[in-house]
Amino acid sequence: MSRFTDHNVIVAKEIISRYPKQKSALIPLVHLSQEQNGYVTEDGMRHVAELIDVTPAEVYGTASFYEMFRFEPTGKYLINICGTMSCALLGGESLMHHAEESLGVRAGSTTDDGLITLQHAECQAACTEAPTLQVNYRHRYRVTHDSFDQLVDDLRNGRLDDEVPPHGTLGRNRQQIPADRLVGAVHPDDVTSGPSWVDVAEDAPAEGAAR
Amino acid sequence: MTIESPFAWAPGYYPGDRPEIVTSRFRYDDAHTLERYVATGGYEGLKAALAKTPADVHAEVRASTLLGRGGAGFPAGVKWGFTPEGVWPRYLVVNGDESEPGTYKDRLLMECDPHQLIEGCLIASYATGLSQCFLYVRGEMPLAHERIATALDEAYAAGYIGRNILGTDFGLDIILHTGAGAYVVGEETALIESLEGERGMPRLKPPYFPASVGLYGQPTIVNNVETLSNLPFIAREGSAAYTAIGTESSPGTRMIAVSGHVRRPGVYEIVNGSTTFRDLIYGDDFCQGIRDGNELKTFVPGGGSAPWFLPDQLDIPFEGPQAGAAGSMLGSGAVMVMDSTTDIPAAALSLVRFYAHESCGKCVPCREGGTWLYRLVERIVAGHGTDADLQTILDVGESICPGDMPHASSERLGIDAVPFPYKMTTICFVGPSAFVPIHSAMTLFPEEFDARVTKREERRTIPVSSEPVGVGQ
């Protein structure tokens, strides 16, 4: 199944409504599609295109720019090992060699059982805790060869099911805006004056028009 | 094994006997909840701001000289003032796409104290008349995403966000937006492109200065997470309390991540302006020196894009102009330290590869040059390089950054500093950033490259066999 489920269509429409222009919802909707299907499919992109009224090619054009979107079947767990400077200085490369050997796959491929995809990654914003990796973007810090093997064992035996959702799921919760509190997004062309709480006379600092 | 930080929920963070402006709640494991936030002075800054006119709040922020923490270090209050008069709507875009090599602070701020960031967004939007706020969080940070989503829900329910905030006319939606993996999106115009649902490629400035022509072509303020996280303090305590910390030109505190070969790598909230790199790397309250008693070889002072410093530069303080005169920049608050055991060409390769990989492909010098630099440096590190490759690296670099490249001075090599910045042939800083690390490495440690390459024979003629082809045996 690649098109959105009925439930996800409702979620998608709510996301779209939050933006002044609906194309802004493109990336969040491709995430939603990837969450539903495990990777980004052609039908999934077609459905996104229908919902935000652009062509499927535009969806692919944008989505293909971003590394988190995968266009082929991906393991339930995506392991990204960082190789940028701070991690490289503290054994990131050796960790990658170990991971390739231990999993029996080269970086960029998936184990035969389809469970784990191994990837080389760039800086994960955890540089003080090098070397790091992410499993479905959940950080693991100061990873040793032993702790890597333990992690794989835990993943294979379902011991991290609560902590690490399957690939494609980002946050396990979503922002929910109560209708009675929502100000609401307005198309920029339909806005002609400043917000009610701004006194326009006050909003004219001397250097306002500088440059 | 290096030392572990005291708070499991804030990995890498170490408190100290120092003023805390943005990390004051990191000691609580529930700092991300509304309950803890309100119990520790949370949303008091918003209340104080709402009691004043927007112009007065803007003036207070301008008086604080709060410098942007994303990398450029431009004063936030001045940046806000660039929005043209009478043009509506205007937007706030929060840059939470932290991905500069070595940088690790915005993620902590989003995970540990999301309400502080939200309060900062509210204060900024009130002060400058913004109608909607988009909180763009890097996709590879699901925990930050979860914490912010929960915090936003709590704040909406409690009346801090949405219609008629705290019973006033002020109304604002804050929308959580997730990125999908692209370093270049940290550049503010690329961030806006991405938020519009496009490929994250930077726009030309001018005309696309976000303050005048930003999101949907409207005036847009783009601020970094740490910058906005300072606003609750400034609104609550006043700009004088803020400028009392740090120096006149670099007031307040700033968060610095120190990684690499130090005894205690960590994220520290330091007093801005007066703290020096020596304090940070050797101080007992900070990194406690180099690991295993080794000597410091070199360090990157401001994220992967910054030219490298030597031990000669340790006494430079966190003042942008001083770092600039010495040949580098403070950037995004990321120090990467290399000790005497470091293989310099290989270390440079880890950064060159990053920038080659992250080029968006819009500007030719970056797209082609970055890739060429990567191939050349990789070949040298693998032991197959020649001295001609070293010259080619400089030639490729010249096509990205024409003219003098900034670098540090070295007593050992007898060279003087070339001040920052460089000239560039690309729209954004990704292109030059691919050349910066290899240029620094080759300038400051030429002997390591000379030892790594073989001499290529000089060819003046095309070799021609004396035997005609196909004749003989």
Oligomer category: heterodimer
Low-confidence parts of chain B lasting 5 or more residues at pLDDT below 50? none
Number of strand elements of chain B: 8
CATH class of the domain at 77-156 in chain A: Alpha Beta
**CATH topology of the domain at 77-156 in chain A, what is it called?**
Glutaredoxin
Number of domains of chain B: 2
Tell me, rounded to a whole number, the average pLDDT of chain B: 95
Task: Identify the CATH class of the largest domain in chain B.
Answer: Alpha Beta
For the largest beta sheet of chain B, what order do the strands appear in spatially? 3-2-1-4
The stretches of 5 or more residues of chain A where confidence is low (pLDDT under 50) are 201-211
Taken as a percent bin, the fraction of beta residues of chain B is 5-15%
**Biggest sheet overview of chain B:** 4 strands, parallel
Known CATH architecture of the domain at 77-156 in chain A? 3-Layer(aba) Sandwich
- Reported by name, the CATH topology of the largest domain in chain B is Rossmann fold
Major pleated sheet of chain A: 4 strands, mixed
Strand order of the largest sheet of chain A: 2-1-3-4
Query: Which secondary-structure class do the elements of chain B indicate?
Result: alpha/beta
N→C terminal distance of chain A:
54 Å
Describe it for me?
The complex is a heterodimer of chains A (211) and B (473). By secondary structure, chain A is of the alpha+beta class. Among the domains of chain A are: 6-63, Arc Repressor Mutant, subunit A; 77-156, Glutaredoxin (3-Layer(aba) Sandwich). Chain A has helices at 6-17, 26-37, 42-52, 56-63, 85-89, 92-103, 145-156; strands at residues 77-82, 116-121, 133-135, 138-140. In chain A, strands 2-1-3-4 form a four-stranded mixed β-sheet, covered by helices on one side. In chain A, helix 2 (26-37) packs antiparallel against helix 3 (42-52). Chain A is elongated and about 60 Å long. The model of chain A is unreliable at 201-211 (pLDDT under 50). With 473 residues, chain B is of the alpha/beta class. Chain B folds into two domains: 34-243, Rossmann fold (3-Layer(aba) Sandwich), CATH 3.40.50; 253-450, Roll (Ubiquitin-like (UB roll)). In chain B, strand 5 and strand 6 (266-271) form a beta hairpin. In chain B, helix 5 crosses helix 6 (114-128), helix 15 (364-381) runs parallel beside helix 17 and helix 16 (387-400) packs antiparallel against helix 17 (430-444). A four-stranded parallel β-sheet of chain B has the order 3-2-1-4, sandwiched between helices. The radius of gyration of chain B is 24 Å and the shape is globular. Chain B has helices spanning 34-39, 44-50, 54-64, 76-80, 106-112, 114-128, 142-157, 188-195, 225-229, 231-237, 239-243, 277-282, 320-325, 344-358, 364-381, 387-400, 430-444, 446-450, and strands at residues 91-96, 132-137, 173-178, 220-224, 253-260, 266-271, 296-300, 334-339. Chain B has 18 helices and eight strands. Chains A and B meet through helix 2, helix 4 and helix 5 of A and helix 3, helix 7, strand 3, strand 5 and strand 8 of B.
